[in-house]
Write a structure and sequence with these properties.
The protein has helices at residues 9-19, 41-57, 70-76, 115-120, 122-143, 181-201, 225-234, 254-267, 285-296, 307-312, 324-327, 337-349; strands at residues 32-36, 62-67, 86-90, 105-108, 147-153, 205-210, 212-214, 239-241, 248-253, 272-275, 282-284, 300-302, 318-319. It is α/β, with parallel strands linked by helices. Strands 3-2-1-4-5-6-10 form a seven-stranded parallel beta sheet, sandwiched between helices. Strands 7, 9, 11 and 13 form a four-stranded mixed beta sheet that branches. Helix 6 links the parallel strand 5 (147-153) and strand 6 (205-210). Helix 2 packs across helix 8. The longest helix is centred in the middle third of the chain and has 22 residues, at 122-143. The chain is globular. The two termini are 18 Å apart.
Length: 354
């Protein structure tokens, strides 16, 4: 079941809060942005934010959304289907995208992001990232876009030893012979493709490396741990933790990801990668569950993962990102992780309110 968040006052107020933050949205006035993966966590929030600005501030920014599932597009974005500032293309990014109108920016955010998909659809995960990125870069070249943004991941760093924080130039080891590596290795290869297109084809590219993202646009059928934790919180169930939970991670609230993408899209340098993180969003995995358990007055239950889950799970024990480069461009968060987790739960608990 797909929740219509646009009929939820809690969600709309959340969008309004982000829309009134300090980013200079006027730089997007009358621009056209193509974004892939619009039915996903990041893409969905991005579309709703820009369409809110169009409605309330006459931004006149056109969104060209790409997703392979047309039924899902029409369900999620039903209110925009007759809006002049919204178009969609229903296709897989593995195939070349034929679009001959003006484009100012392209944001490539389409990717398998679930550990279960890594274990059961490793080929699709690899090709969506590598072939999809190639196709979007080729379109960027042909359309002469101002900027191509590749949405990458902390997982490209692999296992980095002896570091309290990981900056953009730190890299560790990845075991490419595991199914789990299909995601991280293809993201690494896609970043290399971006650099190659910048050098050889003069495509202006920037890369944003996200931490573990959560927020009200999450897919709760996903096997991502954060999605399942928050789903249990919404349903007021005990939290299932399938490890000791001592792994230290950076997390991102989805709205902060959007403002980070916009900041890099407008102000980021060519051929540069930017970590998206904030120290107030660093927690252990267990710490993340403890916020939910405390708020919902439920328990944390430790449970061993099954064999398929084991194949898809990350073995990294520390991924805390340093985001000094991004903050120098003017990006910042406005609330801490506990507040954002509780807001996410409250938005989705009150999904029927309008």
């Amino acid at each position: 079941m797909i929740v219509n968040l646009l009929k939820n006052n809690y969600y709309v107020k959340n969008i309004e809060e982000i829309a009134n933050q300090s980013f200079n949205y006027s730089v997007l006035k009358n621009k056209t942005i193509m974004i892939t993966g619009i039915t996903g966590l990041v893409g969905r929030y991005f579309v709703d934010l820009i369409m809110y600005k169009n409605l309330h501030d006459n931004l006149n920014c056109t969104i060209i959304g790409v997703s392979r599932n047309e039924i899902k597009i029409k369900q999620i974005f039903n209110e925009y289907l007759n809006n002049k500032n919204f178009e969609y293309i229903a296709q897989d990014v593995i195939a070349p995208i034929n679009y001959n109108k003006t484009l100012d920016y392209i944001i490539h955010a389409a990717s398998n992001t679930s550990p279960i998909q890594y274990a059961t659809e490793p080929i699709e995960t690899l090709l969506t990232n590598i072939e999809g990125t190639k196709n979007l870069l080729q379109l960027s070249k042909n359309a002469k876009v101002k900027k191509f943004i590749f949405v990458s991941t902390f997982e490209v760093y692999g296992n980095v030893e002896n570091k309290n924080e990981i900056s953009e130039n730190d890299f560790g080891t990845l075991n490419c012979t595991t199914l789990r590596s299909c995601y991280a290795e293809s993201k690494r290869a896609s970043e290399s493709l971006c650099e190659a297109f910048s050098e050889e084809e003069n495509v202006n590219i920037s890369i944003v490396r996200l931490a573990r993202v959560f927020g009200p646009t999450m897919n709760f059928n996903s096997a991502l741990a954060t999605a399942q934790f928050i789903k249990n919180g919404i349903e007021e169930k005990n939290i299932i933790l399938k490890s000791n939970g001592l792994q230290q991670y950076s997390y991102n609230y989805v709205a902060d990801v959007i403002t980070a993408i916009l900041t890099v899209m407008v102000y980021g340098k060519d051929k540069e990668a930017y970590n998206v993180a904030d120290t107030s969003f660093n927690l252990t995995l267990k710490g993340f569950t403890e916020v939910i358990a405390e708020y919902t007055k439920k328990d944390i239950i430790f449970e061993l993962p099954n064999e398929i889950e084991k194949k898809g799970y990350s073995n990294t024990v520390m991924t805390v990102l340093n985001s000094d480069k991004l903050k120098k461009l003017g990006w910042k968060t406005y609330k801490d992780i506990r507040t954002r987790i509780i807001e996410t739960i409250e938005i989705l608990k009150n999904e029927g309110n309008s």
